[in-house]
Fold:
Amino acid sequence: MRTPLLDVKDLGVEYRSGWRSSPTKAVDDVSLTVGHGEIVGLVGESGSGKSTVGRAILGLTAPARGTIHLGGQDITNRHAADRRDLSTGLQVVFQDPYASLNPACTIGRTLGEPLEVHGKLSAADARTRIEELLTRVGLPADAIDRYPSAFSGGQRQRIAIARAISSDPALVICDEPTSALDVITQARMLDLMSDLSRERGTAMLFIAHNLAVVAAIAQRVVVLYRGRIMETGTTQDVLCRPLHPYTQALIASSPVADPLRQRKRRAARKQADPVAGSEGRAGATPQGCPFAPRCPHATSTCRIQRPAVTLVDGRTVACHLFTADNPTPEGANA
Ligand code: SF4
Structure:
């Protein structure tokens, strides 16, 4: 079997609010892989730790535990200087298209720097390449001499995507790249990213809170809650037939346009996640299942014993309802 392009093993990231405080686990024992040319969605609600995983892979946050390998190389604690070489293989598109572009630089300069440094292109060749890139992401070639303020949010995100793919990276970390955009621009952006991934064989770790966005682009999904992986599998399996109670609650809480279906979803959400919100987090213990305070299936075991990750039907689920002896428990798919 081919080695995955990205291999994250037992990743832990901790934060302290003050030097005397005990550390809070933002990410705990997260293991995931992204294959060559594959798009993997990393989903969860706000505060689930999904962006922290992305930041650790990018070297913007130091891991407390675990390892990160990219293309077989250990990049877990790479220094900033070594990261410069790595940037040809690893790139990022951030959520905010306004903050991610320097307002004082023309688009040509923003896109040209990495090409001249990493691609070692002459200024004239770099200009031709930038014009090609701009055309490919759906912008006019004359955008090269304009400043970011001349573009809408969607256009700026296209520029950010052009910058990310300019060095032909093997992997792009996409951290909520469409969440600041309106739905039509969002759909166009997802089509563009999907096409670019297919054309160039670029793998993506697509971080999002919106399941519909992940469903539109990812081949596999990793569901995160409070820094821990709840469920992983193909997009089809996880989103159409969720097994973990948290995944079920997450799907039930995502809105749909049809009012009748939305009413049914609201009822399903109340059943799947009766104490959604911060009040439901109060009873979580570090030793137990993090979803126990919100879970309608929680037992006393769930509060004191962390569920093992079980392979069920080709996917993984971290829940006491599922064991190797009992992969399809009654009531789990409520
Ligand atoms: Fe619910 Fe227990 Fe499963 Fe956690 S381990 S999701 S509390 S049933």
